[in-house]
Description:
Strand content: 25-35%
CATH class of the largest domain: Alpha Beta
Largest sheet: 5 strands, antiparallel
Number of domains: 3
Order of helices and strands: EHEEEHHEEEHHEEEEHEEEEHH
Oligomer: single chain
Strand order of the largest sheet: 5-6-7-9-8
Radius of gyration: 21 Å
Number of strands: 15
CATH topology of the largest domain: Phosphorylase Kinase, domain 1
CATH architecture of the largest domain: 2-Layer Sandwich
Distance between the termini: 61 Å
Structural class: alpha+beta
Amino acid sequence: MKLKGVILDLFNTEILKKYCLKNNQTLYIRQELLMTVNIKKYDSEIMVKTERRKRTVEDRDVWHHVFDLPTEKIIQKIINRRVIDTLDYAISSGKESGVYRATSKSGYYAVKIYRITDSSFRNLPYYIFAEERFLQVKKKWHQLVFAWALREYKNLTIMHESSVPVPRPVMVLKNILIEEFLGEDGVAYPILQKYNGIIDVKLWNDIINSVKTIYYKANMVHGDLSEYNIIIGKNNMHYIIDVSQAVKKEHPAAKELLLRDLKTIGKFFIKKGVKVNIEETVKIFEKDGVNP
């Protein structure tokens, strides 16, 4: 069976070229340099276009912890469906997942890969298991990871349709979520924690307005909002990411989580010298029973 993409270790370049010439396909190669090699057949010649990016310690750690055999097979299915053509490099690494830039014929995507073999899912927030859809899967490891990825896809869909500035969800397949790439000219925008631009009251108000939209229009609470899951783009536009743990505002823990979100992001702005009043902000939500 011919495959459109293969993930493997590069041992012999000549053997690899012959293999690719015979099958006319794109290969994703793991070695000391993270490479994307596109090989096509033109009059018995092989044209190799290589995009090199020196791998950091974080890249190596992400690769070995994320790309287990089941995940590689799922990536293969996504490539075969022509959703993406290449998986380029790591954008970020978290406790539960790694995020990569991917290239397709229509542009770039962000590919979030949840680790199937990682133990971090054993420490999911207690309030998650109060939801009915998690009661049946919490004892089955891979099903829990798949449900978590699907949960983020659904939460992103609800927020995107409610005009919350989040990346547009594209598809989810088991432990892999594909979403809109947030960046410019192929370079990902920074998270708020690493942002070197203007951090002021306007940005604070913009973020709080998004929290309001999540709460009043999407009827949800983010549940883990901080400077690490807010991305800042062009013209100080912000985007909220990592919404897998978000809950409906009717959830018993929703009010507690909302208060924590407001206080966490408020403390970050205060550290940056921005004068914000967290208590006044909390009062915005008091009419719905949220108490400081």
